[in-house]
Amino acid sequence: MPNYIDIELAGYSFRLFAERCLYWPAQRILFVADTHLGKEATFTRGGIPVPLGSTQGTLKTIEEVLRKTDAKCLYVLGDLFHAKSSLSSPVRNCVESFLADFPGLQFNLVRGNHDAHVGRLPAHWPIETIDPGVQIQGIALGHHPSALPEGASLYFCGHLHPAIHVGFQNDSLGRQPCFWHSDGCMVLPAIG
Length: 192
Prior knowledge:
Elements: E1 4-9, E2 12-17, E3 21-24, E4 29-32, H1 39-45, H2 54-69, E5 73-76, H3 89-101, E6 106-110, H4 113-118, E7 127-130, E8 135-136, E9 139-141, E10 154-157, E11 163-168, E12 171-177, E13 180-182, E14 185-187
């Protein structure tokens, strides 16, 4: 059984992965939202005990989908890192290892609310940071959901971490991440 579904929106074809990624085959672009890398480092620094490994897990998930799709471009739709303290040495090492594994990948970060607090990323990282509102062939990109921008057929974003409650009678699987589309705005689930 495949771990994705193919959909059409506004005349475009996309693939939604169970791994919380959206792939645009015609452009070979993979979109993810809200990676929140280094969240465990920030929480631990603040005295909140949390399991380690979320950064590695998130990057591994993205790596696997990049390899499945052979995407040439990655867009993170905001909140690449959780906080400035997330840029700890172990987290930076994980990111640098990921970047080394994909030397030809065009990596773009659409600035989100957490990114404003992180500040500049290391200059040697090949990550282009762009402001919300950029459009690629009629698809606008941002972090916060909004009305469809002028000239755009679709708007991709994150921020809300959409989820749905799944259950049947007395059995519950709890809240499960989901993609949410309304009035041309596609909100991706948080991958991190």
